[in-house]
């Protein structure tokens, strides 16, 4: 039988050391990074790069109980589905003004409901009309539309929240009409952190979407180095965004002069 390659996500350094020790004793191989050889991922919760990649690649995602039971029986248990990580297990979620049945669905899938924001809260789930308001009030918090929850429950699978947020910002006609940056998805690169926070606030006020990494749906890169990005995406300066904010429009035409 081939050596089973095991990875872990969401655990402390000490916990990973113990997992590695147990996996090795059972004849398996523990890898700190999720490589192409990975066959199973032990995780505390979804929402990490490892769980997202594993979900996309159909790598089994299990709870630590899988390893505990395997270790007790002195052999790996190949019935991964019995130990499948519940969809929202280990996550604190604030459902803001969504139907009670959806809140109950989160709990049924292992999520912990909170009624206000706390630093360890994974996200706030709300109707699309509330997103800009919450982004303005809680600028450092992950705000996700309830359509994401609907899709996760429908498919019984973890979906990258960013894809739902961006798609909704672009496709919702009412949202686009109300906000002048409603069709825009911004990535800020190479800007001072303090100035970036100010730019993020202007994006949110204008109804735009801010992402902290480059994604295929990005429409604008805010940068001061126009030659750095050969991508086929519009590159604009911070001054351009400030002009848009002053005029309450998405300014067309050439990039603002730096």
TrEMBL record:
Mind telling me which CDD domains this protein's record contains? BRCT
Print the keywords alphabetically.
Answer: Repeat
Name by which UniProt lists this protein: BRCT domain-containing protein
One Pfam family name is: BRCT
Q: What SMART domains does this protein's entry cite? A: BRCT
Q: Does the keyword Transmembrane helix apply?
A: no
One Gene Ontology BP term is: DNA replication initiation
- Domain (BRCT) spans 1-75, 83-166, 175-244
The record, for Gene3D superfamilies, names: BRCT domain
From what organism does this protein derive?
Blepharisma stoltei
